[in-house]
């Protein structure tokens, strides 16, 4: 068995070599090939075919023993090593997975550059596996970039085990529902700061929204009151998020995993840009981990009243006799920085998606504003005590999470044991389990006209019983988003405050023509509308007065 595994691994590497070098030449520059090249490629393809057949046979035997004869879930045929990458919409993979789902069903097996991938398109199957069998499906894939870039403190990337559990305990202590309720005054305060920003410079609405999301997180986590503009701590944390989203994507991690020497090319050598970026990220991570944490510690010593925050509560709750092998200061720093990485961008993009929806569906905006006017009036601004009386706003919030989810493929999972589901074999370990939130939220058997933004779907109407909102916008099982209560409340506060005070309308160009906005998105780990212009019109004259109170 060991020998066969060894052969598989040697052949895999040989395969990679043949595949990357020669096949790419054949497909990308065939007109440049000379006769001798063509012969060499033909020869290589012949060897490639023989080795592929040999390896397939080996894999078949090896896999068959491993799986006790059980089949893997159904899925598209791929070409050796490359797998199903060709034909995958790389920028919006959820579209391809949904297409495959129509043919193969809710559970699909595929292969991407040598990596086993299982895609789950169906909510019930996801609940069955990630919730009911959570001891098996709560892992995360090992990403070589975590250590390389100094981001192995991030709870969301950690392996399932004691270390991750310690982090989740701290999240529970700082962000569970009852504790999160205590942060509501901060959320309302920062939402109003956002509205004041709009009064001053409505054209910079993206910046104001970013500030709102970041400053809520900084206040909750560190008790730090971020400056509305150019705050040094926020700036560093945002740079880190940017790097995380652009440089440390799972795709890049997979590339480094497949071609490990990329990580070792010295930064001064051609091709060494990756190492250079990794070093920069490591340096930045050190600052983002320590600087706001030091702010909390200093304040605990010098200030007469300590601002309540997640970090200061965790420091208060420390019990050195129970800390065992862990350096708790380091762990608290890791958890706190994860809060920013997990919470700032997701809150911002969800608010952005809401603004896009209001521009494209003005009748929804109108109805939501009517409800606020009826319940809250114009003498004051809405607050959390109004929430139970604003069901249509609740529908708008649920629909924002459903219409375009900011993480359409959630975060990848890995198995910690092999499993059998409905007769299909699910291997242990280095397999990626992807849950397509996008496929679930756009399931036409569950949501009528799923591409439309329609909060009405959640209310009974003649001939149309209410649809149930998608109940997993924050993920599944043990690894469900620990920031869900805070996120839900921050976004509610942003939505209701904005709708109460401003009409969101199309911008006009210099000639007075309406600037059309399209439903277009920048994609990646998180999905955000492509930048657009719009106008924010005050809904009544007293808005300024209310905001200055
Ligand atoms: C609109 C806002 C947000 C959305 C849509 C969202 C969504 C998600 C999703 C889908 C996951 C993956 C869960 C899974 O694997 O099943 C996740 C994980 C996570 N989220 Fe959020 N999230 C949001 C805001 C936040 C906030 C505000 C925080 C922190 C305060 C946060 C912290 C985390 C962390 C730490 C994880 C990783 C959990 C783990 O691996 O154990 N998120 N989130």
UniProtKB/TrEMBL annotation:
Transmembrane segments: none annotated. GO terms for molecular function: heme binding; iron ion binding; monooxygenase activity; oxidoreductase activity, acting on paired donors, with incorporation or reduction of molecular oxygen. CDD domains: CYP64-like. Keywords: Heme, Iron, Metal-binding, Monooxygenase, Oxidoreductase. Heme binds at residue 481. The keyword Calcium does not apply. Gene3D superfamilies: Cytochrome P450. It holds the Pfam family p450. Pathway: Secondary metabolite biosynthesis. Its cofactor is heme. Belongs to the cytochrome P450 family. This is Cytochrome P450. It comes from Coniophora puteana (strain RWD-64-598) (Brown rot fungus).
